[in-house]
């Protein structure tokens, strides 16, 4: 269970916005972004995959639908978002392990996963939280495993337009927009971090990054 006294940013930024979260992600084309992320992860049959900060489970569900022969776990500190994720999985008839918890304190042994995914989650974290979460990712990845990240920012994310400029100034996003994610991945001990793609969206440009397990 998540730590009862610990605060977190809800999946939609605020509890009252949760019913609007899926429609808003649809507006930015999140399903296609999730598809790119899942294809980038190059998941193979029999592998075990973790999504940190899974929210209402959209990327986790897509992964399971595209790869029904994979063991998938979705982790998030927001119990209300996880409740929605569980209901969606039940309606879709897919089996996913939903876990309430924090990315910087993963409840798993070393080398538990072949892939870890993070979709539009890192920007919720302060830099010290990002560093702690990425160290945990490095710890739970198996040899030959990899991390795959989708988030706002990237090396081509020039602050074009009022919303992009606002994101650029956000304290949690500034380093991401400035191309700092590979540095954070490297600092966590992950191998060969690289930005592999970027896309424009209604709310600003997003990037896709990958890194291998510990060097």
Describe this structure in words.
The structure is a single chain. The protein has 215 residues and is α/β, with parallel strands linked by helices. 36% of the residues lie in helices and 25% in strands. The chain is built from 8 helices and 7 strands; from the N terminus they run ααβαβαββαβαααββ. The protein has helices at residues 18-27, 30-41, 58-66, 79-92, 127-140, 162-169, 174-177, 181-187; strands at residues 48-52, 71-76, 97-100, 113-119, 141-152, 190-199, 206-214. A 7-stranded mixed sheet has the order 3-2-1-4-5-7-6, with helices on both faces. Strand 2 (71-76), helix 4 (79-92) and strand 3 form a beta-alpha-beta unit. Helix 2 crosses helix 3. The longest helix is centred in the middle third of the chain and has 14 residues, at 79-92. It is globular. The two termini are 31 Å apart. The model is unreliable at 157-166 and 168-174 (pLDDT under 50).
């Amino acid at each position: 269970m998540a730590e009862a006294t610990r605060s977190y940013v809800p999946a939609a930024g605020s509890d009252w916005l949760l019913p609007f979260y899926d429609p808003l992600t649809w507006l930015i084309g999140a399903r296609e972004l999730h598809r790119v992320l899942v294809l980038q992860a190059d998941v193979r049959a029999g592998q075990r995959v973790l999504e940190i900060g899974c929210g209402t489970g959209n990327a986790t569900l897509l992964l399971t639908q595209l790869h029904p022969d994979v063991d998938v776990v979705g982790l998030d500190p927001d119990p209300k978002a996880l409740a929605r994720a569980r209901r969606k999985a039940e309606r879709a008839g897919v089996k996913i392990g939903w876990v309430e918890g924090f990315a910087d304190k993963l409840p798993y042994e070393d080398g538990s996963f072949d892939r870890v995914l993070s979709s539009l989650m890192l920007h919720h974290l302060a830099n010290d939280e990002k560093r702690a979460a990425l160290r945990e990712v490095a710890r739970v990845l198996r040899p030959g495993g990899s991390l795959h990240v989708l988030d706002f920012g990237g090396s081509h994310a020039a602050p074009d337009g009022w919303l992009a400029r606002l994101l650029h100034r956000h304290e949690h996003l500034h380093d991401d927009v400035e191309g700092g994610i590979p540095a954070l991945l490297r600092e966590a001990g992950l191998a060969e971090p690289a930005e592999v793609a970027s896309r424009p969206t209604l709310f600003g440009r997003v990037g896709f990054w990958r890194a291998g397990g510990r060097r």
